[in-house]
Amino acid sequence: MAIIEIKVPDIGDFADVAVIELLVKVGDSVKTEQSLLTVESDKASMEIPSSHAGVVKELKVALGDKVKEGSVVLMLEVAGEVSTSNLAATPVQQAQTAISSIAIAGTPQASMVNQALAPAALAPIAIVSAATGPIEVRVPDIGDFKDVTVIEVMVKPGDAVKLEQSLITVESDKASMEIPSSTAGVIKELKVKLGDKVNIGDLLAVLEGTAAAPATPASDPVAVAVTAANLPAAPVTQAQAATIAVAPQTTFSSVPAHNPTTTPIGLPHASPSVRKFARELGVPLAEVKGSGLKGRITDADIQSFTRSVMSGALQTTAIVAQQAAKPAVAAANNDGAGLGLIPWPKVDFAKFGPIERKEMSRIKKISGANLLRNAIMIPAVTNHDDADITDLEAFRVSTNKENEKSGVKVTMLAFLIKACVAALKKFPDFNSSLDGDAVIYKQYYHIGFAADTPNGLMVPVIKDADKKGIFQISQEMGELAKKARDGKLSPTEMSGATFTISSLGGIGGRYFTPIINAPEVSILGVCRSTIEPVWDGKAFQPRLMLPLSLTWDHRVIDGAAAARFNVYLGQILGDFRRVLL
Ligand code: CAO
């Protein structure tokens, strides 16, 4: 065992960046490259990773501390002996790699980068087609990070922007950064929107303005255009134009513009990893109160927000809005008036016989409101079909016999999950979600399964079911179903599903019409298999038939696709070798 110092790597000539978040505490085990803390300049926040795996022995920094290159961040106990020469270099080099690849060279943000590591791009890319013509602002060198997501657009067409004013914020999985304008001017056209992926050289906006404001001559038509676009007052004189051209800061101050050094109202202050965590749980960041430095939102804030919502102590705006919406009010009050219907009948049941009144469980109340919204808002259709699972059931039974000692029982539901993944891959519409007028196609396969619990319906999720085998799925399902029944499922274990299966096979019934678990677009209901006479062309044969009920959102999927999905699912359940085709 050895104790080593983990230091702040080279962060360019920026001294004194603030520690805004500590991601580990004493006693924590950390993996190599696990983020230890977040530092922030006025333009970028970034996480500093650990160069070694080990156990945190001592923290050498506190929230709000200013650090610079070489500051000791923490003491880490690592396995084995570590040579002193390694110690000095390795942490710094690794963190340099992480940081240099995300920072923007040639801009104020570039101060956070090791200039020596990224000498190539020293200026934001601005293509000026002509002194008086439109100016294209493009994404500058953001290292070898590809496809970073636009998470904030700070300007709109018609806005006047200053040189180096932030236009958008992009985010990788480790850092978020603001991309500044390489020129002053007026935004004529924005070429990106929220959620777009951008890379170096991509066109962000077309501006009309001064490519290099101080150098622009007073009579420059561009300057006049800027003036005309931004001064509400009547005629603009050449003298006024000159003022604007040579002193854009003062002149533009009358134009409301985004101040890149302050967090815009409503924009939550949180690191990229916290934002990602919030997104995974569907937590609206804007509603979370940050307990970190300067109100910054931490992982713990997201967790306690989620706990509060789950316990009913807190309601998100979405829930409040939903309850304010007529259908949900109708649900809460059993009042059809909210839907423009005649009121729900109010009956004194006690008049007719003895009664007992029981409050619904919290889970039932929450799921009830969601089910009602989904039932009302989704134009859902259900297709029924049967799958011949005679051979699959025989295989399942023999597999369980062979593996009796393993303690893991393979269930039909595990095979159904695998078969559904194959069908979802073939018909990606079923693994999507609606987002306004766009459809989001998910390239991961997280399958939710409805579990009946004493408190009501819960839907735990088997994550990445495409990457797991039948045994692993069966085992996870058993564990998750037990947790569900014991009321111990975490929010993470119930989030992120791309498709849901509701199996009543262990209970009975023939077919039913499951309600889609929004924002998913389809759900498969399964009932109890029975031996049926099936005509093979010559005679009726006794076959084990599994009733399938597929409900789908008609806005995204059409009937023919749904029929094909069911047919394909039936073929796979009939012969799993088809998955290989
Ligand atoms: N046909 C015939 N038998 C079936 C079957 C099917 N489609 N599916 C399961 N079975 C059998 C199993 O083989 C098992 O029999 P053995 O004990 O003899 O092996 C028995 O039924 C019980 O299975 P199970 O229900 O314990 O296991 P599962 O994997 O099928 O389901 C779970 C697990 C958690 C989904 C289930 O327990 C459950 O909660 N189902 C209810 C879901 C629900 O409420 N859906 C409705 C939602 S809408 O309100």
Secondary structure elements and their pairing?
Layout: E1 2-7, E2 17-22, E3 29-30, E4 35-40, E5 44-49, E6 54-59, E7 66-67, E8 72-78, H1 84-100, E9 126-128, E10 135-138, E11 148-153, E12 160-161, E13 166-171, E14 175-180, E15 184-190, E16 197-198, E17 203-210, H2 221-230, H3 238-246, H4 248-252, H5 272-281, H6 299-311, H7 317-324, H8 326-333, H9 362-377, E18 380-388, H10 390-402, H11 412-426, E19 432-435, E20 438-441, E21 447-449, E22 451-453, E23 456-458, E24 461-462, H12 470-485, E25 499-503, E26 522-526, E27 530-535, E28 540-553, H13 559-574
Parallel strand pairs: 21-25, 25-26
Antiparallel strand pairs: 1-8, 2-4, 2-7, 3-6, 4-5, 5-14, 6-8, 9-10, 10-17, 11-13, 11-16, 12-15, 13-14, 15-17, 18-28, 19-20, 21-24, 22-23, 26-28, 27-28
The structure holds oxidized coenzyme A.
Describe this structure in words.
- The protein is α+β, with helices and mostly antiparallel strands and 581 residues long.
- The relative contact order is 0.07.
- Mean pLDDT is 77; it is low at 83-131, 211-267 and 320-332.
- The strands form 6 sheets. The protein has an 8-stranded antiparallel beta sheet with strand order 7-2-4-5-14-13-11-16, covered by helices on one side. Strands 18, 21, 24, 25, 26, 27 and 28 form a 7-stranded mixed beta sheet that branches. It has a 5-stranded antiparallel beta sheet with strand order 9-10-17-15-12.
- Helix content is 27%, strand content 25%.
- Residues 411-413, 449-452, 457, 481, 502-506, 514, 526, 528-529, 546 line the site of oxidized coenzyme A (CAO).
- Oxidized coenzyme A binds next to helix 11, strand 22 and strand 25.
